[in-house]
């Protein structure tokens, strides 16, 4: 059972954030393929769900009464390592972007990491992805390094960003 599964479900007006399950993986991979992320694929996410140090969350559209008919809008995958949390992937469905889902997912993951003992968060982001960089800066992340040609298809550098984690109110 992942640490994320101990997180409370968070409800917002238009979406709900909760722990990722195996039933979410087809939609997670679909979103991943449209976001320009380094592709993990179904099996990697499935394997991550079994790790106790994993924080795996999804956001679902809350407009449908039947939970299983709600569209998955986005996801975050992170992993804890002692007092550090590595944010591996955040993806939001294209038609749901700019609605606050990415911010809500990141906030939920950072909260889960903090409450599990992490005091620092680290991530890599494409140097060309200024929208994601702006999101991370709003959460206190700052660029600490650069990895040349880290990403493929297209080739791009990765900016390494870190943030000190703290309780959020």
Provide the descriptors you would attach to this structure in a database record.
8 strands; eight-stranded mixed beta sheet; 25% helix; single chain; alpha+beta; disordered N terminus; 169 residues
Average pLDDT taken over every residue:
87
Spatial extent as radius of gyration? 15 Å
Percent of residues in helical segments?
Answer: 10-25%
Per DSSP, the total helix count is 4
Distance between the termini: 27 Å
Principal-axes shape call: globular
Q: What structural category arises from helix and sheet content?
A: alpha+beta
Tally of extended strands?
Answer: 8
Strand content: 35-45%
Largest sheet, spatial ordering of strands: 1-2-3-4-5-6-8-7
Largest sheet: 8 strands, mixed
What report would you give on this structure?
- With 169 residues, the chain is an alpha+beta fold.
- It is built from 4 helices and 8 strands.
- The chain has helices spanning 25-34, 42-49, 101-115, 130-138, and strands at 10-11, 15-19, 54-61, 72-81, 84-92, 120-126, 142-151, 156-164.
- Strands 1-2-3-4-5-6-8-7 form an 8-stranded mixed sheet, sandwiched between helices.
